[in-house]
Batch of 2 targets.
Target 1
Amino acid sequence: MRYERQLLIPQIGQQGQERLEAGKVTVIGAGGLGSPVLTYLVSAGVGKIQIVDCDIVSESNLNRQFLHNTVDVGKLKVFSAKEKLSMLNPNVVLSTVNRRLNAENIEKCIAGSDVVVDCVDNIDTRIMVARACIKLNIPLVEGGVRGLYGYVIDIGRDYPCLSCLGYDKAKQVTPVPVLGVTAGVIGCMQANECIKLLLGIGEPLYGRMLNYDGLSGTWEEVQVKKAENCPVHGNINTVTRGKNNG
Amino acid sequence: MIEVRLFATFREGRDKVSFLDQKDFKNAGEILSYLRIPREEVAILLINGRYSAIDTPLNEGDILALFPPVGGG
């Protein structure tokens, strides 16, 4: 039985499994973070997963983006990812969006999701995704990596976002150095947060930036606060809350 | 004292956590200069968990946290 081991977890059980199978998650980015996030959400049996990415697989992706193999170089990432994931668990309904997200299409893309997981590689898209999630009141799991370091934080309408922390003013570094393992560690944590949010269990990382240091092998939590004049949280048009967002 | 917490690559060649005498620094910018961290490399500057401008005066007992930008894919 596919889910036998996780059904044994008291916080999941049959009821939790049914909740996972009723869940809809959008994962933005099918790369270094997206590979572990998608793999573990599909393994856990999340009902519907939307994969968003507009890139093609390149050889330089392969040190960290394990959903893509050498033979996939040149293929669209969403198709390469879907191919592997549908073999992993054919019970999950996978949909793909091969389009660059922008201010015009982002809300339509993520509408109806119970959770969005941000696995993108640039600051502008992170801020845009956060703005849309906060406007639509969809929980957002955010993660970032650099070298052997990374962080995870959950973002919501009532909790701080990256703009609250001034990250929207940061200068983008390209290319960002990344060890595949680091993206794996952070992506796994993002998948864990997503599952917690879907199930309504545990303590989500709202207002808590969890920082990973792979060199020293340590995790450190930094409690962060909403900014009063946050450009993302400001002027929110309230919409109906999602079924798991309340 | 001011507690300074550095994250990610800012830790390389520096202490992860240091305690500096508040009287020696007017603001966060002076601490960046002391630590030889270029201002343009700082993505997130928090004082007591809240976003703060680089010229924000520091008070005794404040915690300053500094992060560089990160990537994803």
Note: The interface with chain A takes residues 5, 7-9, 11, 16, 40-46, 48-51, 65, 67-73 of chain B (CB under 8 Å).
Target 2
Amino acid sequence: MNAFQRMNTALMIDESKKIFKVSRQAFVDPDILEAERRQIFDKCWLYLGHSSELAKPGDFVTRQVGGRNILFARDGKGNLKAMLNTCPHRGAQVCREKHGSAKSFQCFYHGWVFGLDGTLRSQPGETSYAADFKERSTSNMQQVPRFESYRDFNFICFDNGVESLSDYLGPVREYLDVICDQAETGMTIVGGTQEYSMRANWKLLTENSIDGYHALTTHATYLDYLKSATGALAQVAFEGSARDLGKGHAVLEYRAPWGRPVAQWIPSWGEEGKRELSRLYDGLLERFGKQRADRIATFNRNLFIFPNLVINDIMAVTVRTYYPAAPDFMNISAWALAPREETEWARKYRLFNFLEFLGPGGFATPDDVEALEQCQRGFRNSAEAQWNDISKGMGKENPSYDDELQMRAFWSNWNEHVFRVPA
Amino acid sequence: MQAIARTEVEDFLFAEAELLDEWRLPEWLELFTDDAIYYVPATDLAVDASPENNLFYVADDRFRLSERVKRLMKRTAHAEFPHSRTRHLVSNVRIRKQIGDDLEVSSAFITYRTKDGVTDTYFGSNRYRLVPGAGTFRIKEKRCLLDSEGLRAQGRVSIIL
């Protein structure tokens, strides 16, 4: 019997003593990764892509989601399709390009041709097949079992019996609304994908993406930079709260001194920026009233959607998803999201802002990578040094953005999935 | 103006590589003009994509480049503390064309970075715009085009490429 089979929980919790610990085995054990694949990635809604990535009929992207190869395409009628990227004939990947525009998809192995929706159109030697071969649904590329969308965020699930995406997201929807409502004509993914990896367990990035506690030390040089850049800071203090959104989802909502292209002005953006941002703010005011306009414009949100989607609406908006390749290795994909109607000025400053902090060439993310990889190295001692502590802020009525409530929300739900018992 | 030999450009690029490998970053920064830019685009973009409407890994103007150097020289730039060891190899240097007094130069590179027992390889091409003067050059633009599909497994561009 291996160590994982002997475990029935990875958590040690005592509310009265404010103890919340996570077993470090959860970050190193291959059997836990296998359980995560079966009980989380095969069962939960997973992010596939944003509708704006497929602007017109024929547009497609190929992507790895939950260990599968997915072909995500817009068919001739304009409908989005999520297909398993494998030929129904002998299994080869049908589409081998990362993105593009097509009239049909052809498997090069034996030349079968599929429509944009995966329907078999023709195959060489048709007369050697049964007369009704093309009418059989088994002759087509297979659609993913479940495919649903919310506000242009498209999700798939490999479990036919899963609840609707809408029920799965629950109160997350309201935060997605707040993020998307900054645009009048919808949000769009900006060209360019940041694809990187970390030699660390995937759950470390979940924690890190919603960790308001590490900024002052891990990101000291980023904060130094903001201080030395003339006019890069607004007169705003870090202040805000964390919320458990159920089912492992969580959010931080807080104010911070960096500039937000919707719509928190900083002096370095000058008079042109001031005019632009007040125009944006007035638009929000008109559409939503003062309270919601202020929330959209001046509050930051680090939104975590279980199990592996992060949408951070901070100095820019990033969409980030990540998968384990091994207990100590993950692959990450990140995109920039922006209002479709945004002016050239706003787009430019948004992206400038994005790169300051975010991504593997930014002033902050490389230090996160270092921190997570150092955690993973530290876990080599996990036979003796067995526990992580995430108790900060336990028992508080209103946990702060820099407490660890959101990690506890994630881990409690993770534990239920992996061990099939409530924490 | 006098024709510039490729060997002069090569000597300059080799010297640049040495400054980077020896972590003499403040001196390296002096190679750049006051209006210089340093770009590392995402690898799924066209080679001439603009950072004003596309997501890059790095898109520094001269100010942010100087801040990058300042950052990398601090103990609190955790990704590079202690400093990684690097070797920038520069090859296939060509003078592409002359634009006014400036030169458009391309090179191929392989850069090794090693830290904590892990060695990563970065490879691709650099596109430079060089301003000749006083027997040497200054860099007005350095665009670093990675050939890899993303940054897997390098994970970061915490060094300067």
Note: The CA atoms of residues 9 and 419 of chain A lie 6 Å apart.
